[in-house]
Amino acid sequence: LKEENASLRSKINKLQIFSETQADKMRKLEKKLEENKIKEEKEAQDLEAMVQHVEQNLQLMTKRAVKAENSATKLKQENALLQVQLKNYKTENEALRLGQSVSLAAVKQNADVALQNLLTVLTNSRSSIKQLISGAESLQLVADLLRSIDRISETPEDGR
Fold first, then answer.
1. Distance between terminal CA atoms of the chain?
2. 159: phi then psi, degrees, rounded to nearest 5
3. Alpha-carbon torsion, ordered 98, 102, 107, 109, to 10 deg
């Protein structure tokens, strides 16, 4: 009985030691589990914060994309307007070139008419100058005649 008792006590001691070891292991595992829970909660919070940050960035990027699309639309409209203006300016420029050609032809025609008029005036003025010279020569002749009459009329008075 004593032996059996000693054997049972020994088994009980071994079981108590085993139980304490198991309890230590259990406490360590519970502590580790608690640490893991805390760690997972922190990671979950960090992950949630990261998700919120990503969502904010997505919203910001969406706003930027909308703004860029609006800007692109405005630029396309402005480009179309500028293309129309450019076409109008080209058309106007071509019209001005054609008008300039017409104006140049009119100026040339006017210059030709002016040249013809100048030639006519020159011809007429030559004729008038010839008439003036002829008239001046006639006047010179009359003046010479008048002088000689004065001499003729003076001579008899001296001779009397």
1. 222
2. -80, -15
3. 150
92-143, pLDDT tens digit by residue?
Answer: 888 888 877 777 778 888 888 888 888 888 888 888 888 888 888 888 888 8
The structure tokens 């070139």 sit at 97
Distance CA 34, CA 112 (A): 113
Q: How far is CA 108 from CA 8, 52, 95, 96, 114, in A?
A: 141, 81, 20, 18, 10
In this prediction the pTM is: 0.42
CA distance 24 to 33: 14
Phi, psi of 148 (to 5 degrees): -70, -30
Separation between Cα atoms, residue 98 and residue 103, nearest integer Å = 8
Residue 56 identity (one-letter amino acid) = Q
